[in-house]
Amino acid sequence: MAEELPTYVQALFVMYWIVNVWIGAYVAFQKGRHQFEGMALAFLMGPLGIIVVACLPDEGRSTKTWSADSSPTQEDKRSHLRARRMIDHQNHDELPEPQGKK
Fold first, then answer.
1. pTM for this model (two decimals)
2. Which of 5, 22, 69, 73 is deepest in the core (most CB within 10 A)?
3. Could you give the CA distance from residue 22 to residue 17 in angstroms, rounded to a whole number?
4. Span 41-50, pLDDT tens digits
5. Rounded CA gap, 10 and 15, in Å?
6. Phi first, then psi: what are they for 63, rounded to 5°?
């Protein structure tokens, strides 16, 4: 009968797969793809799954984050305000009327 692997070897194996899954999610995010897609491929295929995710075409979703060097444009600000209003509308039954210029 085969011997069971030592606990530390099992722990290393689990950590190896966790790191693979994390890297797969990160690569997918950088490519503008769903992170779950990268996680699933890396979990099922290991390092080969990470290579597959890296070779997939970019989805074109924005992964842009604002930094001190780049400030948001007016369109970014408008888009953010529209999203906030939609969230507020979902959270409240009635929104107050917007204040116009007087």
1. 0.55
2. 22
3. 9
4. 999 999 999 9
5. 9
6. -110, 15
**Residue written as token pair 């996680």:** 39
- Write down the domain spans for the chain: 1-59
Task: Classify the phi-psi angles of 57: left when phi > 0, otherwise alpha if psi is within -120 to 50, otherwise beta.
Answer: beta
Only one residue has tokens 């995710």, namely: 53
Instruction: Yes or no: say if 33 and 50 are a contact pair by the CB < 8 Å rule.
Output: no
Q: Choose among 40, 7, 9: nearest CA to 22.
A: 40
Query: Residue 62 and residue 78: Cα distance in Å, rounded?
Result: 16
List the structure tokens of 89: 């509308």
Q: What is the pLDDT of residue 81?
A: 73
Tokens of 63: 């992964």
Here the tokens at position 49 are: 């799954």
Residue spans of the chain under pLDDT 70: 1-2, 60-72, 77, 86-98, 100-102
Gap between the Cα atoms of 21 and 70, Å rounded: 31
